[in-house]
Specification:
about 300 residues, Jelly Rolls, transmembrane helix, membrane, FecR, transmembrane, Ferrdict_sens_TM
């Protein structure tokens, strides 16, 4: 037998004949082969559980698949969100370019003309918004504060506030919407007032008032709201409302010390002279006042 075949047979742990064994031992490299074999016997191969490793492999593949599915879902979700945000942006940029906003600050009044020639006069610290593009089809204004309207005849005209909606066809009226205060006065024509899902009709010379949840309908002899003549008038209104209106008209801060601001006040103060105005609201209430630049303190001696 050739040496090569003899060595291969020995490495494969095949049984050697006596003659083959003697021939193998007589080889020059016999000692080297034997040392290699002895060392190999001392080396323990790592244990390998075929079933366990198969399950681990399946688990890793499943996790990778789930991760890929999640990543695919997240990517698609981000795409949808991007399209949604883009759509919202386009919507608002398209419609807001036709939205007109008019606002006044404390101590300021202004008068504007609407696209149909209707007139709106804004009292101090008030604002309106309307869509000039759709004005012919929908005459609607969002009001925050107080405004006097002289409406040109035509389709329905709506004034929307957080307290209620006022609807007319063509008339003159005043709407005042402040915190815990909602007032509508009709000076000409007929006004429809929607408040708490109830609709009330106001004819010329009538007023609807809601103060802190209390509703009252009264008559009015005025031809215009008093603020149009640079004065504010009140009938049985909590003193807190008078203080807030005073601050709007004169752009000041009023500090009330030891005063019951729920006390009802009836009276008038002018917008042109702060000293005269202060006397008008303090003398009936038996109060004193002190002016310090933009701060006014009301107190009782």
């Amino acid at each position: 037998m050739k040496k090569k075949d003899l060595i291969l047979k020995w490495l494969n742990n095949e049984q050697l004949t006596k003659q083959e064994s003697e021939a193998f031992q007589q080889m020059d490299a016999f000692d080297s082969y034997r040392r290699i074999a002895d060392t190999a016997k001392k080396i323990k191969p790592p244990s390998f559980d075929t079933e366990e490793n198969l399950e681990n492999l399946k688990s890793r593949l499943s996790d990778r698949k789930t991760t890929n599915q999640k990543n695919y879902f997240i990517v698609n979700l981000m795409r949808v969100a991007a399209i949604f945000v883009l759509g919202i942006g386009v919507y608002f940029s398209f419609f807001h370019q036709y939205t007109t906003t008019i606002a006044t600050i404390a101590g300021e009044k202004t008068t504007i003309q609407l696209p149909d020639a209707s007139i709106v006069a804004l009292n101090a610290q008030s604002s309106i918004k309307y869509n000039k593009k759709n004005w012919v089809d929908q005459r609607s204004i969002a009001l925050n504060g107080e405004a006097y309207f002289k409406v040109a005849k035509g389709e329905k005209f709506d004034v929307e506030t957080t307290s209620g909606t006022v609807s007319v066809l063509g008339t003159q009226f005043n709407v005042k919407q402040r915190e815990d205060y909602f007032e509508v006065t009709c000076y000409e024509g007929l006004v429809s007032v929607s408040y708490n899902d109830k609709v009330r009709k106001l004819s010329a010379g009538n007023r609807f008032t809601m103060i802190e949840g209390n509703i009252e309908e009264t008559a009015s002899t005025l031809l215009l709201p008093d603020w149009k003549n640079n004065r504010s008038s009140f009938t049985s209104v909590p003193f807190s409302q008078i203080i807030e209106e005073f601050e709007r008209q004169y752009n000041v801060t009023i500090i009330a010390k030891n005063i019951d601001k729920t006390t009802l006040f009836t009276g008038i103060f002018v917008h042109s002279d702060i000293e005269t105005a202060l006397k008008s609201i303090t003398i009936p209430m038996r109060l004193q006042y002190k002016i310090d630049t933009k701060n006014i303190t009301l107190y009782r001696e």
